[in-house]
Amino acid sequence: MKIYTRTGDEGSTALFGGKRVPKDDLRVAAYGTVDEANAALGVARAELARELPLEVDRADGHATLDAQLAQLQCLLFDLGADLATPADARQRGFIRPIDEHDVQAVEELIDRYDAELPELRRFVLPGGSATSAALQLARAVIRRAERETVALAREEEIGDQVLPLINRLSDLFFTLARLVNVRAGTPEVPWTARRPPSGEER
What we know:
There is one protein chain. With 202 residues, the protein is mainly alpha-helical. It has one domain (19-190): Up-down Bundle (Hypothetical Protein Ta1238, Chain: A). Helices cover 56% and strands 5% of the residues. The protein has helices at residues 26-51, 65-83, 87-91, 100-114, 130-155, 162-184; strands spanning 12-14, 20-22, 124-125, 189-190. A two-stranded antiparallel sheet has the order 1-2. It has a two-stranded antiparallel ribbon with strand order 3-4.
């Protein structure tokens, strides 16, 4: 397969099913942002291997965070494919659409990992370990994908589980960002309100 095809040189791209649209089309923007979130997960995995090597290769045979992030990257590919498929192509079976089982699986991960975390009493700043920072970036990017997908859904039909999945993914990435800090022994940095200007009451 050639890396370049020249078919997009004039600013259009093909969706699943063959329809060509401008590269700034709402659908292209949405699945492009999902791809961006996937890249952020790739950065998180690279940092995880450096900061928490036991989460990449655990001797006890349990699933590692690295393996879980790899599965999430595959899920993001599936999500991007769903977004790249117009309604008529969906009906022709071009892809396996996102469904309620995908949403449920993400919810189960959130519940499992959240059980390890201290209660969240105030906002925390993105950061701590490099892995956590990358996961917070993935969270912010997938939130942008959600906004773009909401705009798309006003104009075109999308899968009925696409938005629920994107919404849960942002929660999962936030939970994972906190989790890796806990497992790395890195303190969370709380948000601190700015002081009012001198002489002003709160």
